[in-house]
C-alpha cells in the first residue's frame, strides 16, 4: 500500500523534510522507490520562476538527444544544476547515469505569445522528448514547467536520499510545496514513470490505493487530451481528471470532487444545484472513481488539497503549525516534522470533504 | 396397412408424445378440459382380457370398452409439451415427452405449403451461452477491500436520455464560483438498469399486461426501485395514459403505429410525462420482420385499443418513409421530442446486426444530440409470433455486438453519450442479475428483458421447443392469449407479486456481484472485472482468458 505526503510552507523547505515525513511511515510501503515533485522553488531556482525547468534522468546519449532537440526547437539554456551524488557501495538504488535540472528560456518567436500557447509548447516539447528518449531506454522526462522540479528513482528511499545527498539540509535546493511518495508501482511493471506524484501542466497528483475504475477512466481519458498518456499506474487517472476538470473545462476545484466521487442520486435530488450536479455525474460518469483512494493534488497556483473516495477506505490527516501545513497518510509522519504543533487541531478529512490549503496557508474544508 | 397411409400423421411425427398410464387414470377429464391446444381427447378403446376362474386353467376372453385419453394426431391440434395436463392430473397419469425423432418441421411444410409460424424464441443451440463462459473474476482481495453487500449503499441506476459531452454542457460560472445552467440540455432519466421490455397489449393478455403494470407501480411506489416498463407497440389503456402511473411507462412506437391514435388524443389529459419514448426499428428475435399479431388474438378490446378490424396485424418491416439513419434521427426529433416539448427522452431499438456499429456510430455523431438510448436486441430475444425460419436462423447474438458498440464509442471518447441497453436471451438460465452484470461490465448501461418476465408469471415455454405457441392465442397459462377462458387462468396479482419478488431478489444479487469487486456504482464498461473460460470468447470481447 502506498503512503503519500505533502508539505506546504510559508518558508522554503528542503526535501530532507519530505524524506523525514515519509520515513516514519515506511512500514506502510515497500521501500521500492522515491518520487517527489517540488513547486514554488527556492534556492538556485528562485531567480528563474518564470522559466521552464526540465527534470530529466538519462544516459549520456539521452542528454545529447534532449539538448539537441531543445536547441533545435529554439529553447536557450539559462541554468543547469546536476545534483552531486554519493555513489557509495551498498546503496539500494537503480540509478540512471545523469540527473539533470535545466532551466530554459522560451524560443524567441514565442516570447510574445500568450501563456496558453507557451504552456501548450512546453507540454508538446516534453511529450516529444519523452518519445525520443523512450527508444533504447535513453531517459525519462518527468516535467518541463516553470517553477517545478521532479525527481523519481527506483530503490530504497533512504538510500536514494543518501545518493542524492538529500538528507543534508541546505538552502540551495528548496521549495514551498513538496509532494512525495516512497514506493514504486508494484501492481504493474516497475517503471520510473509509474511512481507518484504525477505531473502535467502545473498540476501534480499522488494517491493512495487501487483505482478500481481504472479501465473506465483510462478508456475515456486516452481520447480527452494528448497529454493523457502513459497510464503506467492507475493513479495517473486522478491527475488527468484533475487537469481535465480544472484546466480543460475550466471548472472550479470544488467540482473535482463532484466528478470523481459524485453524490448518490438521492442526495443530488435534494440539492438546489441538482441540475448541474446531475449533468456532471452523467456527462463525466467515466471519470468517476470508486475507491479505495486518497488523493493529494497541487494546482498551478500552488494550492494544495486532499480528498478521499466516498467509502473513505484510505487514511489521510492534515496537521499544521503557524508556517507549515503537512498532509500525510499517517499521523506519525506529521509528528516527525511538526512535533510541536497542536495535534488536537489535526484534520481527518471525511469522505465528502475536500481540504484545501491556499497560498496564505489558510486551511479550507469544503463539504461536497 | 391398406387403411393407414405411410404419410398419415402419427404421434411419432409430432414434437411431443403423450405418455399416458391408463391404470392410474381416474377419467376425471381434467387434462382434456385444460389442454388449450385440444391436443388430447377422450377415446374408447376395445380391450381384450384373457382370464381363468376355475382350479385348472380354462382361459376365456372378455372384450370391454375402456375410456382412455389419446393424443390428437394432426398438425393444427398437436401437443406443445406445455405440461398443463400433468399439472392438473391428480394421479400423475399423463405427461408429454419430448420426441427426438419428430418429423414436424418437415411434415408441416409438406402439408400446409406455408411457412411455419410460432411464438417464443430461437430453439437452436439451446445449450451454448457466451455469458456462461464469463465469470466475475477480478475480486477485491488485498489491494482494495470488498464491500459489504448488506451494509454499504449502492447506486444502481442507469441513464435513459442523451448525455452531452462534458465540454458542451450548458454551464456558466456564477458570481459565487458555482456552475449554473446556461441553456437547455436533453432530458435524461435515471432508472433501474433492468427495463421490462416491450410486450404489447395484444401480444399479452390484458391480465398479463396489467400484472406487469401493477408490478412496476409497486416496485416504484413501495420498493423504491425506479423500474420502467415499455408498452410495446399496441397502445396503452386510456385510463393509464391519464393516470400518474404513466411516468413509469416507456411508450413504444413501431412501424405499425398501433395505438398511437389514442396516445396522441390523450396527451392533453396527461397529468405526468411518460418515462420515455422507444422507437422500434427492429427486434432481435426476428430481425427484418415487423410485428405480427395473428387474427385469433385480435379480440374486441384489442380492436378497440388499436383501432383495427379483426385481421392478422402485420407491422411493416420498415418505418415507411425512413430511408437513412439521419432520417430516423429526424423522425424521432420531429415526432416525439417536439410532441412532448423536449421533456421526454426518445430512444431507438434495433435488432443486433452486422451493421449495428455503423448505425450506432451515426447516432453517436448526430450533431443534434437527440437520440436518448440505443436499445440493442439480440437473436435470443422472444416474440409473440414470427416465422420459425426467422426465429431460428436470422439474427445476431447480443454479447459481442454490445461489446463492439461500446468499444466503438470508446475509440471516439464518446462512451456513455448514447446509453447502451442490451437484450436478447438475458436471464435465460434464470439468473438475470448475473447476465445483466456481465453485460454492464462489457459496456451496457442497462438491460431489458421480456420473456423472463413472462416466465416469472408462469410461462412454461423454453428454448428446447416447449410450448412456444404464443402466436396461437391458445396460451395454456393465460399470458399470451385473448381467450377469456384461458386468460382467467392467470391471477394477475400473483403474477405481479412474482415479478416484484424476482426484482427484489435480483436487486440483492446485483449488490452481491458489485460488492466483491469493490464498487458501489454500476461498473459500466469495467471489462477488467470479467474473465473468460473460453479463449475465443476472451479474444473477441477483449477480456482476460483464464483456465
Automatic annotation (TrEMBL), chain A:
Boundaries of every Glutamine amidotransferase type-2 domain copy: 2-360
Protein name: Glutamate synthase
Organism: Trichloromonas acetexigens
InterPro entries in UniProt: GATase_2_dom, Ntn_hydrolases_N
Superkingdom assignment: Bacteria
